[in-house]
Write a structure and sequence with these properties.
6 helices, 22% helix, 6-stranded mixed sheet, 4-stranded mixed sheet, binds zinc ion, 217 residues, Metallo-beta-lactamase, Chain A
Length: 217
């Protein structure tokens, strides 16, 4: 059973530490540069190395996956993500989880060197999550949803009591909305139509404050 949700905010990006009967599940990690804050938060929450049961990465972008390798090394927890994101984190290239983006790719290419996982922060996931997978064995009564659109292997975590950790599939940068940084608009639309019918009480986005799904107009 889920006991509590701790929002870890690193400047513009969130990670979530979810406490349950077995220990903790961390959803995203923030970027590599926020490691001391991250560790302080874990300690403050009472999460010691043996208590961290799993690190779920919603997608491979460095602001979400930046401390995954470090945490695995220091806490011994496995890293789980969608298979379609593996190449991006193995090679530190966020375009490898994106099929389209021809325009953005051109515009962003010069920035890529600034916005990529450094060698020591790259990693190979320990396990792959797909749509419908459950997290009960890590103490969390929750289901994985594959929600492509922002990236091809974006996933979200929906707990049985209606907390929805959306990664960048949904966001609240300036207001609640679907992803504004879009790789595949059609896939994003399909993903959103699908989650609208689900029993979601609160959305915990990768960027911005928590909100309720019906705030997305
Ligand atoms: Zn992000």
């Amino acid at each position: 059973m889920m006991k509590s949700i701790r929002t870890l905010t690193f400047r513009w990006v969130n990670a979530y530490l979810v406490k349950n009967d077995a220990g903790f599940v961390l959803i995203d990690t923030g970027m590599a540069g926020n490691r001391s804050t991250l560790e302080h938060e874990l300690r403050d929450a009472g999460c010691t190395p043996g208590d961290l049961k799993l690190i779920v990465i919603t997608h491979g972008d460095p602001d979400h996956s930046g401390s995954a390798a470090y945490l695995r090394a220091n806490y011994g927890a496995n890293i789980a993500m969608h298979k379609a994101e593996a190449a991006a984190v193995e090679r530190g290239n966020m375009f490898l989880s994106r099929g389209r983006l021809p325009f953005l790719r051109r515009v962003l290419k010069p920035l890529m060197r600034l916005f990529r996982l450094r060698k020591r922060d790259r990693f190979t996931p320990d396990l792959f999550l797909k749509d419908g997978d459950r997290l009960d064995e890590y103490g969390l009564a929750a289901t994985i949803l594959h929600v492509p659109g922002h990236t091809s292997g974006s996933i979200a975590v929906l707990t049985d009591d209606g907390s929805f950790f959306s990664g960048d599939f949904l966001e609240n940068r300036t207001r609640p909305s679907v992803a504004t940084f879009v790789d595949d608009a059609e896939a994003l639309k399909v993903s959103f139509e699908r989650v609208k019918s689900l029993d979601i009480r609160t959305v915990y986005p990768g960027h911005g404050k928590a909100f309720s799904l019906d705030e997305i107009g």
